[in-house]
Here is the input.
Amino acid sequence: MADLKKHDTPMIDELKKGPWPSFADDINTRAESGVQCCYDLLGQMELSYVHKETHWKHGGIVGVFGYGGGVIGRYSDAPHEFPSIAHFHTLRINQPASKFYNTKFLRKLCDMWDHRGSGIFNFHGSTGDMVMIGTTTDQLEPIFFDLTHQFDMDLGGSGSNLRTPSCCVGKARCEYSCLDTQAITYDLTMTYQDELHRPAFPYKFKFKTSGCPNDCVAAIARACTSIIGTWRDNIRIDQKAVQAYIGGEIKPNAGAFSDRDWGPFDIQKEVIDLCPSKCMYMDGNELKIDDRECVRCMHCINVMPSALRPGVDTGATILNGAKAPILEGAQMSTLIIPFMKMEYPYQEFKDYVELMWDWWMEEGKNRERLGELIQRQGLRHYIVDILGRKPIPQHVKEPRSNPYHFWKEEEVPGGWKRDLAEFRKKHLA
Amino acid sequence: MYKDDPGYDCSKLLETPYDPEFAEKKYNPDKPMENRITDIGPPHYAQFFPEVIKKNYGKWLTHEIIQPGVIKYTSETGDVMWVVRCGTPRLLTTNLMREISDIADKFSEGICRWTTRNSVEFHVTDEGTLKDLIEYLNNFKHPGGSYKLPIGGTGAGITNIVHTQGWIHCHTPATDASGMVKGVMDDIFEYWHSHKLPAKLRISMACCLNMCGAVHCSDIALLGIHRKPPFVEDDRITGVCEIPLAIAACPTAAIKPATVELPDGKKVKSVRVNEPRCMFCGNCYTMCPAMPLADAEGDGVAILAGGKISNRITQPSFSKLIIPYIPNEPPRWPGVCEAVRKMVEAYEKNANKYERLGDWAKRVGWERFYELCDIPFSDKSIDDYRLAYDTYHTTTQFKWSSHTDALMK
Ligand code: SF4
Ligand code: SF4
Ligand code: SF4
Ligand code: SF4
Here is the structure.
């Protein structure tokens, strides 16, 4: 312990102040319990704060035998100053769906990570994986052996792979959930283990599943295939509870506005007028919904969760192609399949995945996301020619405003071969 | 059905203490396939559910937030359950993880859960335990005084900031993540554990344009950006890069192959960057370590706003570039904090109940948004990238604001 090297870190120490949990304090506390790499990590971070530039080197390929993903190589560019973080690789570990853990698991994991790495985690990475930050190359295989044999756990995805699928809390806790989000996520993860661990794609690919259009896991913004729960029958209404909201006995929006006086709840102003499709009205004391006009935005249900519930004929809306701006600008997932029943073993969905992947693997360029390929070759081509689906108005926000459709020869009677001599008989040149 | 799945029950494994010598006994570097288990996937989720969730899976009837950060759930079966949500900085050590485990053991049947936005949740089934847990958490602090697990993040307030790695662990960042998030959350902490905003407000943070944090659809998005084109290390590039890949990586075709002469007279194949075409995305560096961009003066933070993910009332929408650049100011990024606070306070004061930040800006008009937030408009917010036309204002409908007043003076 005596030979621990503590660096001078005035700027990082500043981050111990203030109410929000301080990672600096946490890492420092761990350093004080005798862990050199925590001191070195804070030291290198201080150096970045001085230089305003990162001190992690680019890349360096590391991994476990037979896997193409799950480990991200990381080396310090100031190894002499911070020798204990000279290599400091990341492991992505496939989290259990919706991220419940018991403490037996967490404690044992801590024992392992203290023994083989820095003892620092990201709970969780942005993709959803449990992330372990900081270990050396020689520990990678032992960690993989520990995880698979002692924890029943596997690596997640990185590189040009399927990334670890993730989902919202779904039916475990949320009364809105139209899907068994965990079951879907677990099944897809198990079915596509090979795609998750061995790079065969042009670039990364993500599945995310949210139980309803509130989309708590941000599927529509982050996933190449977004699976979002919905229903095709009617919103269930408990008229007595509606009256309880009107009478002020139940707080609107489950109490989400409690620290401000917005005046008494006004169902006309706060629900009916805000409904985007204007399909709700009061018929005397009864709340009525013209469900055929409802776009299932969740607003009324969110405001009156005790009175309104999604219907019972539930399934998923499937959307494709979300991505961050690199390279072709940010994209949101685009609606492809308005409704699909999602029932075990999800065969209809998997058939769809095969079509999608075959096309992308055949046509996608290096580092081209599915959303970019859809842009490049056209949404119409994807829906009609690749998926063989019937085009419907729901596929567009509005029809195109230019007439430059590339008609195919077979679509035009007589084809494109024409007789100029015949033409000139009718028209003088 | 899940009982048939492989990997369903790992309780026996978990009862067995961690064996630090196990891997060295089982793993033989000369025969890596020996004793190997692969492709087993994650542990089955259901084994980590609290009993009350196993019993009420899919049967929840309604919920109520009884105070910021504390949600009460009621089931069809009559069961009730409370959830206490606590903020974390995402970056956790085993020290804190063991303390979280202690809390879960003491108050919530040894189980906890993490949210999409990196908060941790404890589930309890009786009100007495709930009271004790809340009291315990309110007194649970780091030596420097910050809360270890502050309660909040529900309802019409600000949730945890999803963010990326930054200088603590990534090779491409233009700014730090954890430090900036700490600075911003300290500054707007009052909105974390209160319900006084017009609707929920989501802040996200990503330290480079790769946007591991998916900030492109958030109410407020903090984004690290570079502003200087890459260097080209001629003497190193052939050794560490596939030049065609670096060239292909550039979305604006700014990189061209070139043969250059090194100081020692040796001719090597390298590349040249057409600098006016560079939009500082860093893709070339991702493909080629001999083309670094990081720079203390060049790098900093852009702030975007008005995006959302949820389909509630209005459709999901992208965040828009509001402030093109704020310099990196470690350790607390006061410029970023100030900009965020201005937007949050203007939103709090002016938006309607249920109205998300972007919907409010759209309703009052973006020109009014700038005015109300007291943020200068910059030429950089006029899109000149691809598909820019979608954002042009093709109507004579606009509002008079300080900007037109200034023009017409
Ligand atoms: S996405 Fe819907 S079902 Fe899932 S947790 Fe959010 S509100 Fe509940
Ligand atoms: S879910 Fe949305 S669209 Fe449907 S009735 Fe409710 S508020 Fe209207
Ligand atoms: S956003 Fe960029 S800098 Fe930040 S962690 Fe992701 S790749 Fe690294
Ligand atoms: S930073 Fe981006 S735009 Fe600039 S040269 Fe590199 S790849 Fe091209």
